[in-house]
Amino acid sequence: TKEYDFSSIEPKWQAYWAENHTYEAKDFEDKPTFYVLDMFPYPSGAGLHIGHPEGYTASDALKRFKKALGFNVLHPMGWDAFGLPTEQYAIKTGTHPAITTKQNVANFTKQLSQLGFAYDWSREVNTTDPGYFKWTQWIFMQLFKKGLAYVDEKPVWFCPELGTVLANEEVLNTPEGPRSERGNFPVERRPIRQWVLRITEYAERLIAGLKDLDWPDSTKRLQENWIGRSEGAEITFDVAGHDSQLTVFTTRPDTLYGATYMVIAPEHPLVASITTAENQAAVAAYVEKAKSKSDLERAELSKDKTGVWTGATAINPVNGKEIPIWVADYVLMTYGTGAIMAVPAHDVRDFEFAKEFGLEIIQVIDDGGKAEKDADGGLIEAYTGPGKLINSGEQSDKDSESAKNAVIEQLAADNRGKATINFKLRDWLFSRQRYWGEPFPVLWLSQSNYDLVDDSLKSVERPVTCEVDGELLYAIILPEAELPLELPEVESYTPSPDGQSPLSKAENWLHVFIDPATGATSTEAQDGWVPAIRETNTMPQWAGSCWYYLRYVDPKNTEALIDPEKEKYWGTPDLYIGGAEHAVLHLLYARFWHHILYDIGVVSDPEPFKKLFHQGIILGEDGEKMSKSRGNVVNPETIIESYGADALRLYLMFLGPLEAMKPWNTKGIEGIARFLRKTWRLVVADDGELQLKIGQSDALDPETERVLHATIKKVTEDYSSLGFNTAISQMMICINQLAKTEALPREAVEDFIKLLAPLAPHIAEELWQRLGHEGSIVEAGWPKYDESKLVEDSVKIIFQVNGKYRGDAQLPADVSKDDAIAAAKANERVQGFIDGKTIKKEIYVPGKIVNIVAV
Ligand code: ANZ
User: Domain-by-domain residue ranges, the chain?
Assistant: First the structure.
């Protein structure tokens, strides 16, 4: 065709890349490697939204750029396909989630290909494939054997509407109370048997490992806060008139003399025993009410302070002072020891609480006049800063920092206190009562049968047990030969109303016999084999996404999760691109598993993602978040129909810096379309043949040459740092320059097309072919620039007489003052204004102006 007809060009080249395996990565090729990873999508029924092609265009362009530079590039794609939406659809329609998943994956694959994303599809992974989740189960097996998995009856969020338990992070704190993030349904607390992973054992390493990562600072900070490392002390108080003691966690042992009351969480084990008879009723009522509130809600700083006195008092170990013990929900059982010493003078929440209930406030840190006071010299808000200790017995006059240790030492002498480190991070609730997830490769046995089983199937140091109908059952792990453990067919995908997974109804699957020596299973009884019951929970969606980047390196290996030689060859991803919404959970869980895989020698580096980049959110034209309800959703498919994939890709990258949040603007895409048509016309003439001016010259004129070399330099640098928007601006300058140049060496045109190829690969391949080449443009390498061609070697100098413009000339950039003035005087018009006059002054502004003052 003569015209730029993207609708025929684009499918042609998409088919070409697929048929020629252009972007398949070759293991062990003798080249430097570059592994660029995208966060793989959940293949939803809705198809791609505009957020997908943003990050994916960046990675696709980077991949093409790096390959042209000579790297062996790995850029794979796959599917995070277990999870709730597909299961919800199954519950509604009865369609097996595997069928829905297959359809959705086919649709996503088509859409991604239409955008020109040339992944290495030979390495495609799908978390729901048995060949994949065999290894998810295998990793769980390692955790189990290391004692990092256990079962606990836990009060967890249960959503009756979704019929499932939710993780804390799936629950939102709303004005109507806690609700599910998905679907916005009410949720409640229920005790349910759960698998839990001991991520807390890795808390210290997960904090320390952040230091060397090239990640956005904000994301590192989010992880840090989520893990929440606090240095402080545990201090033990006697309860007056009781045998019991109350231990608190505090980050401010220096304020111990200012403790005027204590607070224990409503769930604290001492609540019942220390509460006095006359306070029982009020305390019990308060405890009951607290049950309906989420930790988030309770920890809210701004919330009204509530609480009741237990009637009991505690004795401050440093001064013997008796202070009341309250129950209040702003203290959480899940943090520290579930009890605090309250120092209202120096803690914001304690201050509000003390004001609310008229409790004593004693200042023990001198604020140096910084805190606001009332007429009587009392604090009107907590002073939380540092200062000298006052009202603090033998510690008085010390500064608050050094007093922290001094107080701990003072207490340590009689075992009343010790330094401790606390983490906000909780163990990871790792099960769901759902169908569409990885089955746990776990069997439950009676104690007598468990005793017969080989140790290699046990968590030897910390046996995992749970009580079912009064009997204690023991967990063993299936041997590798039994993996993958696949999901059974079930009649209904709906969890039972008591929170049990649909798997609990799969009778034939549920009950098995095992060989105690090997762990082999059978549905038939065999000699010496013992009965067992399968675990009916499934793993959460996070499981499969915790390690998928490793599987791309060796996706078809049936003997190992990853071949060690391939692992060493490719290493971990050189760049991970994905949304900031995964800043905490996915990225933390993946780091946790990677550390474990490192510990057991599967990978050679403890951290999985050295460099991370978040693409910014694309807002609607109205500047609001795109959403169906606002009606401002941009559909990538309709843009491709009207403008083509190259235009969409360029436009997405031209919207602004990749990391910035930016609004969509449909009008802007017109400019991009014009740029592409101009590029087409640079090569293809009206009659469909090559433009005659191509090859008409051996060299460019100096100005065009300068622009071209500047463009090669800028685009090369910008692509390397994902600065695509500025690279595009420079290419726009370049195309305008090339378009107005009369005769062009073929190489100049080809260099420009090569620069454009990573972002607009279809048009680039087509023009490359029309320029007479065979094969993909990516094989032609990357243009080089010549630093010496970048200097502007001539400048335009303005000539003035008495400050008025009288002419100009193009002079060498380094022209001397004398030569510039001479050139001005040689100018005919200038001569007309100075002839016959006396020259009083000659001024030269270097590189700009000559001004002659003549009277
Ligand atoms: C006395 C004190 C005085 C405190 C003071 C603070 C300031 P981070 O930094 O988050 O670790 N605390 C301890 N356990 C708690 C729980 N289970 N629920 C609610 N609050 C709890 O915070 C530690 C501080 O939070 C601790 O130090 C304790 O209050 C409170 F001027 O102890 B502090």
Answer: 7-137+542-619, 149-197, 229-423, 431-538, 665-789, 794-854
Give ligand 1 pocket residues (Cβ under 6 A).
230, 249-252, 255, 331-332, 335-336, 338, 340-341, 343, 346-347, 422
> Which ligand 1 atom is nearest residue 330's CA?
19
Determine the atom of ligand 1 nearest the C-alpha atom of 259: 1
CA–CA dist 586, 169 (Å, integer)? 11
**CA-closest residue to ligand 1 atom 8:** 230
- By most ligand atoms within 8 Å of CB, the mutation choice from 335, 350, 352, 420 for ligand 1 is 335
Closest residue (by CA) to atom 22 of ligand 1? 251
Say if CB 441 and CB 477 are below 8 A apart: yes
Confidence of residue 655 (pLDDT cuts 50, 70, 90): very high
The hierarchical CATH code for the domain 7-137+542-619 is: 3.40.50.620
Is residue 522 very low, low, confident or very high in pLDDT (cuts 50, 70, 90)? very high
Tokens of 725: 């928007």
Q: Whose CA is nearest to atom 29 of ligand 1?
A: 250
Whether the per-residue pLDDT at 302 is higher than 90: the answer is no
Find where tokens 């073929």 sit. 746
Instruction: Name the one residue in this structure whose structure tokens are 């401790």.
Output: 420
Within 91-145, strands assigned E span 125-126
Q: Is this structure's pTM higher than 0.90?
A: no
Bridge partner residues of 662 (DSSP): 618
For residue 341, how far is its CA from the centre of ligand 1 (angstroms)? 8
Q: Is 161 within 8 Å of 186 (Cβ atoms)? A: yes
Per-residue pLDDT, 169: 65
- Quote the ligand 1 centre to 339 CA distance (angstroms): 9
Give buried/exposed letters for 520-541 (b at 16+ CB in 10 A, else e).
bbeeeeeeebbebbbbbbbbbb
DSSP letter assigned to residue 628: T
Nearest Cα residue to 124 out of 16, 59, 38: 38
pLDDT of residue 586: 95
pLDDT for 55 equals 97
Calpha distance 364→319 (Å, rounded): 13
Nearest CA to 761 out of 94, 3, 12, 1 is that of 12
**Which residue is associated with the tokens 């009997």?**
471
Atom number of ligand 1 nearest to Cα 336: 14
- Average pLDDT for residues 222-227, to the nearest whole number? 95
283: tokens are 């305390």
The binding site for ATP consists of: 628
- From ligand 1's centre to the CA of 619, what distance in Å? 40
Dist. CA 21–CA 297, nearest whole Å: 54
Taking alpha carbons only, the member of 585, 652, 722, 599 closest to residue 142 is 599
Q: Which of 718, 721, 739, 716 has the alpha carbon at shortest distance from 787?
A: 716
| Mean pLDDT value across the chain | 94
Q: Is pLDDT above 80 for 566?
A: yes
Q: Which H or E run contains 229?
A: strand 229-239
Q: Which two tokens stand for residue 807?
A: 């002419």
Q: Whose CA is nearest to atom 7 of ligand 1?
A: 347
Helix (H) or strand (E) holding 231: strand 229-239
Mean pLDDT across 253-276: 97
Residue located nearest, by CA, to atom 10 of ligand 1: 230
Across the range 139-152, mean pLDDT stands at: 97
Q: Average pLDDT for residues 772-790, to the nearest whole number?
A: 95
Assigned CATH topology for domain 665-789:
Isoleucyl-tRNA Synthetase; Domain 1 (1.10.730)
Fold of 229-423: Isoleucyl-tRNA Synthetase; domain 2 (3.90.740)
Q: How confident is the model at residue 164 (pLDDT cuts 50, 70, 90)?
A: confident
Q: Specify the fold of 794-854.
A: Ubiquitin-like (UB roll) (3.10.20)
Nearest-atom index, ligand 1, CA of 334: 17
Residues making up the annotated binding site are 628
Q: Which atom of ligand 1 is the closest one to the Cα of 333?
A: 17
